[in-house]
Structure formats: C-alpha cells, structure tokens
Amino acid sequence: MAQSSTADIGKQISARSAMVMDADNGETIFAKMADNPRQPASTIKIITGLIALESLSSGDHIEVSQHAAAMPSSKIFLEPTKDYRADDLINAVLLASANDASVALAEKIAGSEEKFAHLMTLSARMWGAKNTICRTASGLTAVGQQSTARDLANLFRYAMQHDEFARRMREKSIRTSYGKSLRNHNKALWRIDGALGGKTGYTLAARQTYVGQFSRDGQTIVVAIMGSESMWTDLGKLVDYGFKKQKTNQIARAGN
Length: 256
Hints:
Elements: H1 6-12, E1 17-22, E2 28-32, H2 45-55, E3 61-63, H3 66-69, E4 83-85, H4 86-94, H5 99-110, H6 113-126, H7 149-159, H8 163-170, E5 173-175, E6 181-183, H9 188-191, E7 195-203, E8 207-216, E9 219-228, H10 231-255
Antiparallel strand pairs: 1-2, 1-9, 3-4, 5-6, 7-8, 8-9
Helix pairs in contact: 2-4, 2-5, 4-5, 5-6
C-alpha cells in the first residue's frame, strides 16, 4: 500500500490546524494551517506549569483567593479557607487541568492573573512561541488570547527538556499531600505507543486541542492539534504518520 501523502493526511484529520515536529531538531514533519492563530484552551497550562516549576519550591504554601476558587471546571475545588502546597497545585494544573489551581499559582507568583498572563506571553516568546498571547492562566476563552499549532509544538518541545516537567507529564495519576487523587487527562499515555507526555484542552471556542511528545525506535516527535472534533483519532493518525515520515526521511538521507 502506498504511503499517505501530506495532502492525504491533512484531509484525514478533523483538526483545523496541526503540527508534527522533530523533537530533536525542531524541523517540520507535517503542518496544516500551523500558523493560524486560535484559542488554545488548556494547552496553555503548559506555560503556567513550567513558570510555576521555575518560580516556586515544592513546599511553598499557596493561599487561594475567592477569584481562584470560583473558576469553572475543570477544577479540584480548592477552598479559600485553606492553603496548599505548590507541588500539589502544579500537578493539578499539568495532570488534572485544574483552572482553580492555575489561577491560585498565578496570583502567588505575579500578584494577579492579569500580571501573570503578561509574564506567560513574555515567557512563551523566549521559549520559541512568537504568535502566542496569553490573557488567562487557565486557557479559558478570552478576547485576544491566541496560540498556533507551531507555537504549541515549540513550547512543548522546550518544556520537555525540563526534567521535572517531563517527569510529571509521564504520571498517569498522582495523590496529593492531602489525599486527593489526580488522574492525568492525557489518555494518549494509555492509548498510543510511545507517549511521553501531553496536555489536552477543550472549550466551545477552541474545540479540542492537544500537544504532546512521543518516542519510537529512537525517534522523538511533538504533535500539536487545534480545532479538532475527534482529537484522539486525529492524534493517532498524526503520530503514526510522523514516525513513518521520519523513517522515510532517514532512509532517504542514508541513501544520499
């Protein structure tokens, strides 16, 4: 059977935009409208989580404001009368996609979610995302907030070079210090061979979004998806395509 062409794989996925990137050198393997700005939904939490890891110690205590506690789901139902360990809230952001934990961390680090969102935008640019603008710590739909599939791939590629970030993203579930079980929203860890970590997202405006990293046979790729209607199906097709394309390119280079 002939291998799918780039045009074919683009038609086979529901995602409005997508990016498959070589994680080792950042080269493009496949792109579909990869520079079109869209609402990123909770994929933007990779920036929140990484800033928190670089700014806080695991044992730092985080107070929860009424504003943070009032965030809509996904959330872990933080209580304003209690304080929490930074370690637990970072895990809640990266694994359970908790909006309340995202805002609580933002307020701890920058004093307000608005100031933290500005820090997120500046950090994104430093980490290789030139077309990303953050307005929230959570990724909830906001006017002016945007990212692209290429930016998400660049951000995740950068973040996975941070050992502590990568370690947490591999966890399928974690128990907090106060006894709550957090289950990773990234079903690729169970469903797709070679999954190393990833972040899901969904809002009505963004539709389904995803960014993650995968490794097979010594090759590592990053896949970003935005505006999908069948995210896990799209992801499976793009991951398989990415590794086949990598193998084809490797054989071609060896033959030259």
